[in-house]
Amino acid sequence: MSRRSTSQRRAIREAIEHADRPLDANEVLTAAATEIDNLGIATVYRTLKLGVEEGWLIPVELPNAPTRFEMAGKKHHHHFECRQCQRVFEVHGCPGNLKPLVPEGFALEDHEVILYGLCAECAAGKPSKG
Ligand SMILES: [Zn+2]
Ligand SMILES: [Zn+2]
Fold it and tell me: How confident is the model over 87-114, as pLDDT tens digits?
């Protein structure tokens, strides 16, 4: 692996680590481009795919939204999508035991909870930084 691709990879990884919320490919590009000149979206996509294959990245799939990526190994958490700026944030916490919702005879294996609304910046009427 060339030195250039190693540094691109490191910049992309650090961008996601420091974001503290799942990023889509364009957000990764914006964040990592401050570190790496001439970083292209194709490289970002390739690195994200590799990260998932290697197990250090987790794809976050929300309905009708581009795939976001977060670091693997986080504690159980959920997500909040801002309807105005479209950013996705981590929600720490969980409604907990959802078994009472499950029809009789069904075996619950997993759950996903997505909250929708306005992030603090949008709720305060501030322009989002993207
Ligand atoms: Zn927002
Ligand atoms: Zn949960």
Answer: 999 999 898 888 899 999 999 999 999 9
Do the Cβ atoms of 70 and 16 come closer than 8 Å? yes
Give the distance (Å) from ligand 1 centre to CA of residue 40: 26
Give 117's DSSP letter.
E
For residue 129, what pLDDT band results from cuts at 50, 70 and 90? low
Ligand with smallest separation from the Cα of 128: 1
Ligand (nearest to CA of 113): 2
Phi (first) and psi of residue 90, to 5 degrees: -85, 140
> How far does residue 118's CA lie from ligand 2's centre (Å)?
21
| Residues ≥6 apart with Cβ < 8 Å to 4 | none
What does the pLDDT read at residue 96? 85
Q: List pLDDT tens digits, range 39-54.
A: 999 999 999 999 999 9
94 Cβ neighbours under 8 A, 6+ residues apart: 76, 77, 78, 113
Longest dimension (CA), the chain: 57
